[in-house]
């Protein structure tokens, strides 16, 4: 860890607001911290806690409006960056202060080659010629682990994957050997092998060049491995600062403890449900006079509803913004120790319940077939006797009704009436007889 000397970067009372139609959003509220030469400061906190906005406020990267740095002082190399003109600030950005942005997919210019974008700060801030800048750009690509670096200088950003674009962004930030490097989640899109290479590169450069590094991340494991000090942010405020070993061994702010308990462990018993921080982050459009963590804090006291705690010293280089560590707080306001949690009762094994016998359903009675009604045959009509010499008349054929297949009674068909037969006139038959014929 670097010795305590004059800090290369000193921030005091920084306040940043965003003016919106719904009012002012207090994104950064009275932030104080410092960074020594050769030191790596880890900044952790939930999304929306103000980490990135704080660092972008230091070097004027926020759009104005709607952003406005309302108060504070940022001392770098003997000058206040908040009072520096734009031309001088452009010379500092990229030259003496490097910045690795969070989103590599949109940070590179899609119409320029990767080599051109790496060579640009070399030619502007270091005065290199085109040939020397190209050689240095190839060295930087090789340094961050991109193979065939000389050939890849002529490629465009869309020809690189997300992880390789992130490495290009790191190469651009390291191009001019800056005094301060601000890295906003620089290893998010990298696999663990390249991530380990980048972390080793950071350790080497800050030792070799005396470069101070501000490392913004959600990964507490990375912070534990490379950071010298840790700054925990919540609701736009710094709630705890400590050396890395001290913070992990003795966290004093309830939010810091909650963050550490949410990290899943690879040892111990396997749990079915991961630990979470209950509740929601504070609404930054309001600026109340109470503790921003009170609604989610398990140690909430009456004084937390009235006052916003300042940072109280805990140990050497360790302070926390919580009334629990305030030595002047009356014992009446301190929370009473909670009883030890009782082990949850083990659920009794469920006994098999006897299955109820199924109820046999009686079949629905089938409808009985109705007897067919007997068709009444019509009385036979007397047939007229033929007259001598008359032909017998044909008898009309009576049609029998068709049997019905319906189960209900069949309606009787009307009896057919015999058709009137035409009267046949008797035909006269002439007979010729010869009586007593001629004998001769």
Automatic annotation (TrEMBL):
| InterPro entries recorded | AAA+_ATPase, ABC_Ni/Peptide_Import, ABC_transporter-like_ATP-bd, ABC_transporter-like_CS, Oligopep_ABC_C, P-loop_NTPase
Q: Which UniProt keywords apply?
A: ATP-binding, Cell membrane, Membrane, Nucleotide-binding, Transport
Stretches for region Disordered: 328-440
This protein's GO CC annotations:
plasma membrane
- Composition-biased stretches (Pro residues): 338-348, 379-395
**Could you tell me which Gene3D superfamilies the record lists for this protein?**
P-loop containing nucleotide triphosphate hydrolases
Annotated ABC transporter domain residues: 12-260
Q: Which SUPFAM superfamilies does the UniProt entry name for this protein?
A: P-loop containing nucleoside triphosphate hydrolases (SSF52540)
What are the subcellular locations of this protein?
Cell inner membrane
Enumerate the CDD domains for this protein. Answer: ABC_NikE_OppD_transporters (cd03257)
The GO terms describing molecular function are: ATP binding; ATP hydrolysis activity
How does the protein associate with the membrane? Peripheral membrane protein
Q: Which domain of life is it from?
A: Bacteria
GO BP: any one term? transmembrane transport
Q: Where is the composition biased (Low complexity)?
A: 349-363, 396-414
Matching Pfam families, A to Z? ABC_tran (PF00005), oligo_HPY (PF08352)
What family is this protein classified in? Answer: Belongs to the ABC transporter superfamily.
Q: Which PANTHER family match?
A: DIPEPTIDE TRANSPORT ATP-BINDING PROTEIN DPPD, OLIGOPEPTIDE TRANSPORT ATP-BINDING PROTEIN APPD
Q: What name has this protein been given in UniProt? A: Oligopeptide/dipeptide ABC transporter, ATP-binding protein
């Amino acid at each position: 860890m670097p010795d305590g000397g004059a800090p290369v970067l000193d921030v005091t009372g920084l306040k940043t607001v965003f003016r919106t139609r719904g009012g002012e959003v207090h994104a950064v509220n009275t932030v104080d911290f410092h960074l020594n030469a050769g030191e790596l400061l880890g900044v952790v906190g939930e999304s929306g806690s103000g980490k990135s906005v704080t660092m972008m406020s230091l070097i004027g990267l926020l759009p104005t409006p709607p952003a406005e740095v309302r108060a504070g002082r940022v001392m770098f190399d003997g000058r206040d960056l908040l009072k520096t003109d734009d031309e001088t600030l452009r010379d500092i950005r990229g030259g003496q202060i490097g910045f690795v942005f969070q989103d590599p997919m949109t940070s590179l210019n899609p119409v320029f080659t990767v080599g051109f974008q790496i060579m640009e700060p070399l030619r502007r801030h270091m005065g290199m010629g085109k040939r020397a800048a190209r050689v240095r750009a190839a060295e930087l690509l090789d340094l961050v682990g991109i193979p065939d670096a000389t050939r890849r200088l002529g490629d465009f950003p869309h020809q690189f994957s997300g992880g390789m674009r992130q490495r290009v962004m790191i190469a651009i930030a390291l191009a001019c050997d800056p005094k301060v490097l601000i890295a906003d989640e620089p290893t998010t899109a990298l696999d663990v092998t390249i991530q380990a290479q980048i972390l080793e590169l950071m350790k080497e450069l800050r030792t070799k060049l005396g470069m101070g590094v501000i490392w913004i991340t959600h990964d507490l494991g990375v912070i534990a491995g490379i950071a010298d000090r840790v700054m925990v942010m919540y609701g736009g405020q710094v709630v705890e600062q400590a050396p890395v070993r001290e913070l992990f061994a003795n966290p004093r702010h309830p939010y810091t403890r909650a963050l550490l308990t949410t990290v899943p462990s690879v040892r111990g018993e396997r749990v079915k449900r991961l630990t979470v921080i209950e509740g929601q982050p504070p609404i930054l459009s309001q600026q109340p006079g109470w503790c921003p963590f009170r609604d989610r804090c398990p140690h909430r006291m009456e004084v937390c509803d009235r006052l916003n705690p300042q940072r109280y010293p805990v140990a050497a280089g360790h302070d926390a913004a919580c009334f629990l560590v305030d030595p002047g707080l009356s014992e009446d306001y301190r929370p009473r120790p909670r009883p030890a949690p009782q082990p949850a009762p083990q659920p009794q094994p469920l006994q098999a319940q006897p299955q109820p016998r199924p109820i046999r359903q009686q079949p629905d009675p089938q409808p009985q077939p109705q007897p067919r009604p007997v068709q009444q045959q019509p009385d036979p009509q007397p047939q007229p006797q033929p007259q001598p010499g008359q032909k017998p008349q044909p008898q009309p054929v009576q049609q029998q009704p068709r049997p019905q297949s319906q189960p209900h009674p069949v309606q009787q068909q009307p009896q057919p009436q015999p058709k009137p037969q035409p009267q046949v006139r008797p035909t006269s038959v002439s007979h010729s007889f010869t009586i007593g014929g001629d004998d001769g």
